[in-house]
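Retro notes - structure team

What went well: the batch runner handled both jobs without manual restarts.
What didn't: labels got mixed up in the shared folder, which is why I'm recording both outputs here explicitly, each with its sequence directly above its tokens.

Job 1
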Amino acid sequence: MQRQILFRCPRTGTNVQHRFDDERPEGAGPADSYVPVRCPACMSLHFVNSTTGRLLNEPGAQPGSTPRSA
């Protein structure tokens, strides 16, 4: 069984659909992890959250990851 995610390419701004296999091998890590995805819009590699579809560097992807000035 496959499931789809939708993410926005940071280079082109295009919405991109990607399919993941729901079957994960034993010891593959948590379901809420970032996986490399080859983007058909720009042909680059993006790291996409396999559960939410958020990109690794997308604002709001990781709470508290925004650097703050003193």
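Job 2
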Amino acid sequence: MSTLEIRRVAIVGAGSIGVAFAVVFARAGWPVRLFDPDAARRDAALGEIAQRLNELARFGLLDETVDAVAARVQMTTSVETAVAGADLVQECAPERVDVKRALFAQFDAAAPATAIFASASSALTASTFVGDLPGRHRCVIAHPGNPPYLIPVIEIVPAPFTASHVTERTMQLFRDAGLQPVLVSKEVEGFVFNRLQGAVLREAYCLVRDGVATVEDIDTVMRDGLGLRWSVIGPFETVDLNTRGGITSHAQKMGPAYERMGAERGQHDPWTPELVGKVAKARRAVVPLEQWEERVAWRDRALMALARHRKSAVSGSDS
């Protein structure tokens, strides 16, 4: 099946992520069947989808009318009805092994043989709940940022038994839906998104516990400091551009301090020369050192544009 033919989507679970995924796929022009075992969620979900679409339209982020996009989403009353004829089944159920295991067994029994089964799991790997499933080869994790219609990154995490063509089709599917898939090459709890987020949260909690800073001040450092840069460039490029000589120079100057900070928290993960070399090689392939000054200037212009936007947004809210 060509990736261009993958257009019918079933979403099982109509909580916040299920509703958000419905917006993503319907905005991409694809028919969506949505199911939730809770009748109250089934009653509320379509209205929530319309509300989110109206907000997107208000900010100029819809290419069609709200009614045209909303009309693509159909609420169903059973898993079997939702997954019938689906090319992709996107599971958005609670983070429980027993719940996911039971749902994926239903998918495997009722969905077409060519359907991909994707879980929006935030931390559980596919191996923990579909390892014994007959159709386990077509199962994969597709963990989104929240909400995915505004945060486009989505982590695609195959299990060791996931067929390579399923992984490739899943990556292309989400690209076609307007998201930015990232392949996570090994099954690790929390994947990349929540491991990075978890590292920040663990330190933030420790700083509050130890009386170093208040909750409000830590949020300020992230929002008005690190977060500003990270909304333009990632942590590796940040330190690469912060130090003349690039990331190798940064590691030489700051690596010992970061190693001591980690040891203080009981974590000993030194930046070995081999590891730094691997990261530096990746950075130099993107930005050679002779282009470092140019890229620093680009970063500053990007931050200026962001500062201008934040200033105008604040001014607009006061008017």
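One thing worth noting from job 2: Residues 232-318 form one domain.
We'll revisit the folder naming next retro.
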